[in-house]
């Protein structure tokens, strides 16, 4: 479930906050790079160490955890919207 799908999420969050974004998708040559490019549009100061990846048991999918400081609900909404529009993204949390 993304933040934009949870109507009460804003009530639970105070900004800025430490935010672990999870993105699952098709494990191909460009998936991780594409996702990092999208996240950097919304989080320009994203460091290299902020991204962790883990392939599925079969290797068909890749799970990314990207940890950053979220500045606003609007930032997260725009980020989730762009990520969910990517054709290889299967789920965002």
Number of helical elements: 3
Q: Outline the biggest β-sheet.
A: 4 strands, antiparallel
Mean pLDDT metric: 91
* Beta-strand percentage range: 25-35%
> Termini separation (Å)?
5 Å
Q: Helix share of residues?
A: 25-40%
- Nearest-angstrom radius of gyration? 13 Å
Q: Biggest sheet, strands in spatial order? A: 2-3-1-4
Uncertain runs: 1-6
Please report the total strand number as a whole number. Answer: 4
Backbone structural class: alpha+beta
From N to C, what is the helix and strand string? Answer: HEHEEHE
Shape: globular
Characterization of this structure:
By secondary structure, the protein is of the alpha+beta class. It is 31% helix and 31% strand. The chain is built from three helices and four strands; from the N terminus they run αβαββαβ. A four-stranded antiparallel β-sheet has the order 2-3-1-4, covered by helices on one side. A hairpin with a 5-residue loop joins strand 2 and strand 3 (61-70). The radius of gyration is 13 Å and the shape is globular. The N and C termini lie close together (5 Å).
């Amino acid at each position: 479930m993304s933040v934009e799908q949870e109507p009460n999420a804003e009530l639970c969050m105070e900004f800025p906050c430490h935010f672990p974004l999870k993105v699952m998708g098709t494990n191909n040559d460009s998936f991780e790079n594409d996702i990092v490019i999208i996240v950097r549009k919304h989080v320009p100061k994203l460091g290299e160490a902020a991204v962790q990846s883990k392939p599925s048991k079969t290797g068909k999918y890749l799970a990314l955890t990207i940890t950053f400081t979220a500045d606003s609900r609007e930032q997260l909404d725009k980020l989730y919207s762009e990520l969910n529009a990517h054709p290889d993204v299967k789920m965002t949390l």
